[in-house]
Amino acid sequence: MDQAFLEAFINSSPYPVFAKDDAHRWIYANIAFKALAGEVDLIGEDDSLVTHPSCLDRIRDAERRVIAGADSLDEETLITGTVLLTVRRQIILPSGRRIIAGIVLSVLDVADTASSQAKESIRKYEAVVATARQPDSDRLRSLEERLELARQSESAATKAAHTDPATGLRNRIGFDLDLGAALNAPLPPDRILCVGYLDLDRFKFINDSYGHKAGDAILRAVSRRLVSWPGVRSVGRMGGDEFAILFEHPRVAPHVLVEHISVQRNRIFRSARVQGKLIPVSGSIGLSVHGLDAEDAETLLLNADTALIEAKKLGREQVRLFDAALALRTFRRLTLERDLRKAIAKGHIYPVYQPIVDARTRNIIGAEVLARWSHPALGRIPAQEFISIAVECGLISALDFGIVRKACETFRNIVLSGPLDFISFNASALEIVRPGYADEFLSLIRRSGIPAQKICIEIVESSIIHDLGRARMNIQALKDQGIRIALDDYGTGYSNLRALLDLPIDRIKIDRSIVEDAVHDERARKLIVSVAQLAQVFDAELIAEGVEDETQAAYLEGMHCEYLQGHLFGAAMEAGKFEALIAKRRRTAA
Fold first, then answer.
1. Is the residue at 476 inside a domain?
2. Residue 532 within any structural domain of the chain
């Protein structure tokens, strides 16, 4: 963060700029300053490499005062003979580190001065000021005026570089500066320093419905409310509809803090009148407390942002304080995100297989392929958890195709020799609507040597309903090559008849939650009857998931379910156990 901040600071200045540490070593210099210094390699060297010995001690004394918090405007002579008028200022980086930042306001040539007194004044700023106030020192008085204009220009440029133009609040760099300064300032023991991260709900909807001018007006209205927050130290617009606020608060119990902030949330996020219209405004807040869950600026902001994400998961208009439980979840999430890519690349995500049986004969005729991950430190990771992470991190395609490839390699001989009629794969929501998915999947199946007719793709209705057109193209392309299509978890989502009409569905899978209720719930039984009738209408086979006992199995067989799947016939298992189970069933049948 220090590196990025310094580069942004230096590159934004039109003047020669440098930065030193508290040992007077050069740590940064822009191109303009390097040109003045004679193109020597400054970084890591102390100032004696460039500064003339005659003024070295004086400049170092000035820099020690700057580190202590004072500003300094000095003249100095370089070894090259160039004389500089330089302003020095302490900068506290977001990490808390203090450095000296210098901006050269003017470059002079000693030979041009009118007298020996003027020459001496160039080496001592106090003499310059004193001489400038004399009636006969017009040139130096002009110089002082130029210095004042330069100071004003530099101040305006710095302010502009740290301000969000749309709202007048601090921008991210400005807020980081304020936060770093606040963390280094004393605070009474009965007060705490808090960081809040906020964003608006449905801001895109406001822009789309009322126009971008109205959206900007909403941002300004929220900004005005934020700056009147009790105990406010700084407010920044971090981008888009996201804000950060730094404020003091009495030291209270965490739940009391959340209650107090909830009151402020209601004040900040309330309707605003824009262009004669009352526009609803709502939002959520994530909180982080200095000394409670973080000590440095970067972690405070990160924790507040994490708490905001958690707040939004709970619904709109929430306040969430970062705490130990959230820290553990965050650590787990970051660990899984970090390790998932490596696990996919190294083949540590592996397939398991759950038997699917013929409802009449109870012979194993198929298998659903599922993904498993045993993390070396965290143990077995639920599939729903790591699949969700894969989707968010853009890894789902690699994950899905890796599982398909492994399963086909393992089961090729079993499928070709006859015991299995099909193997079934789950297509994720993102993949089934992705252009090119069908071509890539079919290419993989062709390379495996397994006939397409032996492959089934399971899709969840909710994954296609919002982009039925793209889903239809992929599904039809798969179907045209012989791939069978199953509609998974039917009865728990939209139960949309349009999907059955528009898509070439071969199988409908009744969700396990409905099967579980069928024995003792008349409504569940009626629902199964309805789904069975739909399957007949659409000439689709029926599979019941989650079959746990013979009572359920017998009932479902009577409802004309062709296939059954559940723990009664075997849980998901690794390939070796699955092959052994097939062999055992065949011996028993014989």
1. yes
2. no
Answer yes or no: pTM beyond 0.70.
no
For strands 379-381 and 422-426, give the pairing.
Answer: unpaired
Residue ranges in 314-436 assigned as alpha helix (H): 324-345, 383-392, 396-417, 429-432
Whole domain around residue 218: which residue ranges? Answer: 172-322
Q: Are strands 507-510 and 541-544 parallel, antiparallel or unpaired?
A: parallel
Same domain, 265 and 341: no
Q: Any idea what the CATH number is for the domain that residue 256 is in?
A: 3.30.70.270
Residues 350 and 447 in one domain: yes
Name the CA dihedral angle for 226, 232, 236, 240, rounded to a multiple of 10 degrees.
-30
Buried b (16+ CB within 10 A) or exposed e, 496-533: beebbebbbbbbbbbbbebbbebeeeeebbebbeebbe
Q: What is the per-residue pLDDT across 162-211, written as a single tens digit (0 to 9) for each?
A: 888 888 899 998 999 999 999 998 889 999 999 999 999 888 888 888 88
Instruction: Decide: 336 and 272 in contact? Cβ < 8 Å.
Output: no
Q: Are 102 and 60 in contact (CB under 8 A)?
A: no
CB-side exposure of 92: number of CA atoms within 13 Å? 18
Domains contained in the chain, number? 3
- Give me the residues paired with residue 17 across strands: 103
Q: Give 208's contacts (C-beta < 8 A, 6+ positions apart).
A: none
3-class DSSP state for residue 548? coil
